[in-house]
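STRUCTURE:
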């Protein structure tokens, strides 16, 4: 699993993320050419945790932010205190990102289909690391997938262990250096 470079941009919403997910036939039709922030989240979880576990954590694969929000809400997984590994919904659940860390009243995210500008940009065409005040008016809510293995907890919480393990490798790949190709 390799994080895409921050400058990777989809052309007219055609991306490798939708291409790869479409090849798995996980959606109710092909999604290349559609807004892809949620598809990017699905792709990251699939690459880091495998298809079966990713499906369990992410409502199956919906490709829709509002549908995912409603599912997390119905499962009681909307949280008020975000942490690394949580998902953040923006606007009226029209955009989604992965929280990389929470520090000094800010959340740091990795988002697909945004831009590298400071403000929230929906359908911006690239993957970018961003940060927001935890009280930003752009933030709708936070959702916490039910991580349950050592590797998943490391992904969620950025924990380190004393030895070089598969879990450390998984964490580095999942929330590691996005700028490396």
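SEQUENCE:
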């Amino acid at each position: 699993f390799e994080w895409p470079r921050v400058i990777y941009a989809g052309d007219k919403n055609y991306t490798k993320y939708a291409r790869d997910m479409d090849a798995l036939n996980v959606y109710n039709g092909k999604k290349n050419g559609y807004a892809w922030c949620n598809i990017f989240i699905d792709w990251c979880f699939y690459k880091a945790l495998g298809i079966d576990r990713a499906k369990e954590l992410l409502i199956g694969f919906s490709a829709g932010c509002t549908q995912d929000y409603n599912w997390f809400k119905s499962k009681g997984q909307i949280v008020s205190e975000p942490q690394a590994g949580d998902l953040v919904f923006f606007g009226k659940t029209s955009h989604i990102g992965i929280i990389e860390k929470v520090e000094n009243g800010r959340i740091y995210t990795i988002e697909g289909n945004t831009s590298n500008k400071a403000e929230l940009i929906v359908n911006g065409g690239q993957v970018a690391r961003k940060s927001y005040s935890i009280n930003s008016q752009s933030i709708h809510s936070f959702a916490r997938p039910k991580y349950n293995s050592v590797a998943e907890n490391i992904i969620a919480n950025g924990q380190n262990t004393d030895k070089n393990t598969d879990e450390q490798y998984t964490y580095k790949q999942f929330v590691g250096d996005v700028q490396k190709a």
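REMARK: Residues 1-9, 158-172, 175-181 have pLDDT under 50 and may be disordered.
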